[in-house]
């Protein structure tokens, strides 16, 4: 996915930090489903859809809703008329969003590459840059966060955890209780040996 942005610059939302080196881009984008959101804070349809997209993104990535953030990243591709309009819009959106800098010619490249003619548009991409959904706006409206599972399967993402949560919990319980069980086993063996010794001593004295 980083190959799509090679030599380009992305901005971290609400900050002046640039995500531009290949290493930074790989870390931000690898093994994730990428959403390219083409929109504008002034477009009436975008004003209706953007809060839905914000909620969609937060429910998949914010620790208030999920224990572990989904493998999802969003890049805002602005059609705002001024940089101030773009900044004002992004201030109302999640901090984890990235954005193509205002006025960057790369915006037009992306529009042409993914045949975006109207906004709002959400292009869903695999980590290798292949298109999963050309425009997921209606799918997000209809299904909400549930549609991410379909994208995840299509993208064949590698799970970041080697142990599933339930397996990990079971393993944790075993690892914690095993030493206690072993200790109890040793104590039981010692008690049995003592009792056996006492019985033998009793037989000999009688």
Automatic annotation (TrEMBL):
GO terms for cellular component: mitochondrion. One of its GO terms (biological process) is photoreceptor cell maintenance. Residues 1-163 form the Thioredoxin domain. Gene3D superfamilies: Glutaredoxin (3.40.30.10). InterPro entries: RdCVF, Thioredoxin-like_fold, Thioredoxin-like_sf, Thioredoxin_domain. It holds the Pfam family Thioredoxin_8. This is NXNL1 protein.
């Amino acid at each position: 996915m980083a190959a799509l942005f090679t030599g380009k610059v992305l901005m971290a939302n609400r900050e002046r930090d640039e995500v531009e080196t290949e290493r930074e881009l790989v870390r931000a984008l690898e093994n994730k489903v990428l959403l390219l959101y083409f929109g504008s804070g002034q477009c009436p349809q975008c004003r209706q859809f953007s809060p839905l997209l914000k909620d969609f993104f937060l429910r998949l990535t914010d620790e208030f809703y999920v224990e572990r953030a989904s493998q999802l990243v969003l890049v805002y591709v602005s059609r705002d008329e001024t940089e101030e309009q773009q900044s004002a819009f992004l201030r109302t959106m999640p901090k984890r969003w990235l954005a193509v800098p205002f006025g960057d010619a790369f915006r037009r490249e992306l529009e042409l590459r993914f045949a975006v003619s109207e906004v709002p548009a959400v292009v869903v991409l695999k980590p290798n840059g292949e298109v999963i959904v050309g425009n997921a706006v209606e799918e997000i409206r209809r299904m909400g966060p549930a549609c991410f599972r379909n994208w995840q399967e299509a993208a064949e993402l590698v799970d970041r955890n080697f142990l599933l949560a339930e397996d990990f919990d079971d393993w944790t319980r075993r690892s914690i209780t095993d030493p206690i069980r072993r200790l109890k086993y040793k104590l039981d063996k010692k008690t049995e040996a003592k009792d056996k010794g006492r019985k033998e001593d009793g037989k000999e004295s009688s």
